[in-house]
Amino acid sequence: MVEVHPPRLELTQVEEGIKYVLAVAVRNTSVRRCRVRIVPPCSATLRLSSASDVDLAPGLELRAELAYLTDVVEPLDDRLIVQASHRDDGAPSLITVPIEVRPRCAVIRCAVADIDFGAVAQGAPTVRPLELRNVGSLPGVVSLSELLGPGGQPMREGGTPPFRLLPARLEVAAGGSATARVECSAAELGEASCTLRLRVDDEREHAPAAPAVGLCAVVERQALELRDSESGEPLTAVSFGRLFYGLEARRVITAVNTGPSAVDFAFLNPSADADADETGTFDPHAASLSIEPAMGLLPPHGTCTIEAIFRPTREPNASSDAKGFLASPETEPDDGQALAIELQLESVETGQALALRLTGEGVVPRLSLSEGTLVFGDVPQYDYLDRQVTLRNQSTLPMDWSLSQPAHFSLTPSSGSLPAHGEAEVYVRFSPHQLGELKANARLRGFGGAVCELPLKLWGGCALPRRRVLEGGVDTLPEDFERPPRLVSGGTSSRPEWSRPALWESTRRIEESATQLHRLTDGSLRASRRRVSLRARADDDALDRIDQMDTGLELTSAEQLERTQHKQVYATFIARSREEREAARRARRSGIDPAELAFGVSLGLDPFSGLNAPWPEIDAPREPLWLERPYAAPGSQATEAGMRRPAIFDQLTLAPRKFKEVPESAEEIRECKQPLGPKELLSVACGPKTLDFGTVSAFTTVSRNFSVVSGLNASVLVEVKAGDEPELETSWPPSQVVPPEATAGFDITFRCGEPCTYRRTVAYVINGIHAFRMTVTAQVVPLELHLVNARGTPLEELEFSFGAGDAASSCSQSLVLQNRGTHPATFRWGHPRDFTGRSPYSVEPSEGVVPPKGRLPLSVEFEPQLGCHPEHALVCSVENGLSTTLLCRAPGLVEARLAPVEKTIAFGTIAIGTAQQRVTVLKNAGQSPAAFSFRPESLPVGVRLEPMSGVVPAGDVLEVAVDALIEAPARIEATIEALVRYGKRVQLPLSLEAIAPAVRLLEEHLEFGPVIVGSSAHMPVSLSNDSPVPAVIWCDLSAFPGFELKLRAQQEAEAMRAEMDAAEVSTTVTGVTGMQDDDEDAPLQLIAKRPDSAAGGENGGGEADGASSVGGVDQRLYRITVPPALGAAEAAAATPRTVLAGAVAGGGSPTPGELKLSLSFEPKAVGRVEFGLPLELSGAEDPEAEDVITIAAAINKPAAVSFTLENVVKADAPFSAFFTGDSPAKFAVSPAAGVLSGNVGTTFTVTYSPDSYGKPLRGSLVIDTEDVRWIYEVRGTLPVYNPPVARPPPSGDARLGPSGSHKRVSE
């Protein structure tokens, strides 16, 4: 409606005391008058000078001035409102013009009004960023002015302020921004709040006020506490009581962090560190009492489980000074040793040092046997003897004991528990299964050997072999397998006393020794050494458990098989070598060289020298270099050989397999709670220590792999504390149980929605005890789309122009939207926020998604419209990202002024199916070419323009042809619109009325009578047009050879000329014209082809070249134009040439609406010819029949069919019933006229009277009233199926009815 220029008012570098004036122009761009009112701004420093409520004519503009004057310059943002409305419209349209005033100084604005620190620790500094923007025109230095309390009073200077600004002074460039830091270090508990007022260094007297920021925080106490896991009470000491040396006891303690921030903790033993530094001696207190984990990280308001361990330990070789009987356990004192350590739990963040005292008492175990050696003597094979031994616990604590079971000996019971100062009896049974001297050592272990271990020496012999008697049978009971004890005392079964042997016994032993020596010299030295080795290891428990059936002089079956196979291989090798030596010896004796037999006579050359090998060369496979620490992937040669791969961390490849998050089996739970030593921690490699996500776009989800390579033989539990950071909360899994010698991978997922430089420290804990840290870094950039051309050059603006002679209403340019980030960018093209009105520029597609690192082609279309400024900025808004602006300009664009010379296109009344043409002129009154294009949707059906678009030069005119070809009766009143490029629309009113001509054939019958072959006969044909428009009738005589149509005057002139020629009289006949084939307006034309009316009118089809021959048949198609029923003056004014033709055809004064023709017949053969004259009105459509009436009648025997018809309007109406002119005369209807009843209806009778054989006849019955028309198709057939005879009836009533629509339509 209106356009405001400029669309935005800005004043920069404003100073006090100076008056500034801005001009505003409001222009009426509509085609109607509108009332414009400018609402002044609200600020008192801005004054508007303009007329109020101005009535603007189209194209005029209203100018106003806005003045600014003030003594104190402050940044000002206001607006100017323009109201525009038409008289006929309701609510006015509003246009807002923003006003922005910026002083000539530094104007600092804060990005946020308040900063909430949330919960902070008491005394611990917490920092929050504060973004400062300088919207002024000069740089400024920002510093802290003062801190205001909750009541607005300045805070006291004596105490430490809870908040401070870092750095103390910060410079912000003009139009730029900077980030300061606000630190909160409140010392008092509770809620801390204040207002931070900033100061901007400015020498000006009236400098704008600096901003203020509200600060608030909740200060909580940050402390560490040690509590009992069961009761939850505070804990300062842990007492373990009395415990044997070698055993272990554990107590669970809970460390609680009561503060809002994470803290590190560590347990220290100051006394142990000082003693170790001074003396370097063994400390039993520090070695017996410990705590795990010794250090760690506690999350905010989190807890950690800590175990206190008591493992009494004595100094190594503590009893080395005691010798002989003094070194036995019985001589050691029973009194326990009191052990205690003082630990301190220290934290750097809280500055605490909590004391924790661990105490316990170590007790020396005193377990003894009544006998240390049991001698059973000789026992027959498979027999047994029993001995009894007593166990005594001389300690003050209960003790669990167990006994080992050596071979050939059994001890019952094998385990039990002894109370303090208690005893137990054990039965030892000796049952030998082999011959010889049998020895064994049974081990008495306290608490499985952890506390003490005593040997019990057992000796027995078996010299009498026996066969083993097996118990069993169907009648054997379980009691039959029990063997009763057979106790013997220590004296009866001891080894007999030694006495000197007799002389003959010594001689026999010497002989046996000599024999044994001879066996050794014969090759039995290896077996003797093995036997001696077995005897030397007879005290080993593992060998005692084996039921050996020999003394080691015989080999096992596997050893014998290996020895036999080795002998066979060696024997084969010796035999083959002997054969080769004998063959070589025989060859030397005969003088034949084996090489000559294989390669022929030797010529002194190397075999095959200088020749290529007759087989293809095969590339020798190259095995990879075998390294002790290979760099290859799993599956390489080094990995398959069992070598452990070095810890090479690949953060870009995610591990496909993840292990379980928590230990499940008892063994895994035990292993995942064990503390690891320094060497074991070195075997667990974790990395990389710095996860670099690189440069990513905001909202991009990126994952990196954090690997844990375990070289231990036990499972470890690794937990990554990545979920504590919001940007890493989707990392998975939180923990994994890493199996022995396995590699686990953690998917550290990063996603940040704000541009920043990200750097955080993430902790990971091994076995819940050992805490380590890694660094996560990323550079997050905002989502942004770049505009480039096809060659990749950045674009900031586009210029549009139209070429000479270009009639297009719009033009377009292509560009590419490029996404250089790592996240899909969803964009939408729009306009600036303060833009109101229409824009001549549009982008396709206007919205979409650009994939990461992808490109999307765009098309910017410029369609200049009057009222739209040719310079406009398009804004590409990116969801959650930065917007991109594209400036579009069209320099040199001038308003086009195009108008029609004739204001109306009037066709008047025309005939349907007949083409009419009018010409209108478009004139360009402007100073630039005017491009136009007609809107196709504004053209009525049947109306066509040529040209549809074009360019009119400045000051020139252009003719536009308007063609009308209407196919149905209609009255058309329409307005044809033409769009003018950057100009007002052109409107052409169009009016016409298309009617169907009413043409009648005045002759009812055309009877030539007998005609002699070779001669010709003529019959007059008269056509009457009762309508006010010319009628075009088509007559196709191609199927009727010998018949020809001519104008009656032409036929009379030719007859007169023939008579004169016969009389040999030379006379010139003037005033008579024949049929003019080359004249489009001639009343009778002979053409070769009927033109297609839908393709371009009556004159655009065939050529008037007379009759033609197609396939041997003469093409005789006549176009007959019947003049309208008008007076001579009116006819001459409407269609002069057609009326003139009618006058010539009449031979004198023409009869209005009548055309006289002559039908000539020149037979070529003998016969009877009957047919209906094929006259067809141009533009008439075939009527659609309501129903089909079929009548069967014999020759000369009429038949009739009756039906009843009611008036659809339910009222009586006069009617007329008749058959159309092209219907055979054999059909008749009665009554032909009357009143059609609307209640009971009227009965009609249709009669069919055939008088000759032939094909079935068809006719159209019309029943017409003022409101409704009914059309029926009547078919006449014969009752019997005899071959038809070609004898058509004579032509009947050839009246042509109106050619309108024959459907039953209620008007």
Written description of the protein model:
The chain is mainly beta. 11% of the residues lie in helices and 40% in strands. It has 13 helices and 80 strands. The strands form 19 sheets. It has a five-stranded mixed beta sheet, with no helix packed on it. Strands 11-18-17-13-15 form a five-stranded mixed beta sheet, with no helix packed on it. Helix 12 crosses helix 13 (1136-1146). It is elongated and about 185 Å long. The C terminus is likely disordered.
Helices and strands in order:
Blueprint: E1 2-5, E2 9-14, E3 20-28, E4 34-39, E5 46-49, E6 54-56, E7 61-68, E8 76-85, E9 93-103, E10 108-110, E11 114-121, E12 126-134, E13 140-148, E14 163-166, E15 169-172, E16 177-184, E17 190-200, E18 212-220, E19 224-228, E20 237-244, E21 249-257, E22 263-268, H1 270-278, H2 284-288, E23 289-292, E24 295-298, E25 303-310, E26 337-346, E27 353-363, E28 367-369, E29 373-378, E30 385-393, E31 399-403, E32 409-412, E33 415-418, E34 423-430, E35 436-446, E36 452-462, H3 503-536, H4 541-544, H5 557-590, H6 594-599, H7 637-640, H8 666-671, H9 678-682, E37 684-687, E38 690-697, E39 702-710, E40 716-720, E41 735-738, E42 743-750, E43 756-766, E44 770-781, E45 785-788, E46 797-799, E47 811-819, E48 825-830, E49 841-844, E50 847-850, E51 855-862, E52 872-878, E53 884-889, E54 898-900, E55 905-911, E56 916-924, E57 930-934, E58 943-946, E59 949-952, E60 957-964, E61 970-980, E62 986-995, E63 999-1001, E64 1017-1025, E65 1031-1036, E66 1043-1047, H10 1048-1062, E67 1084-1087, H11 1093-1096, E68 1108-1110, E69 1113-1115, ...
Helix pairs in contact: 12-13
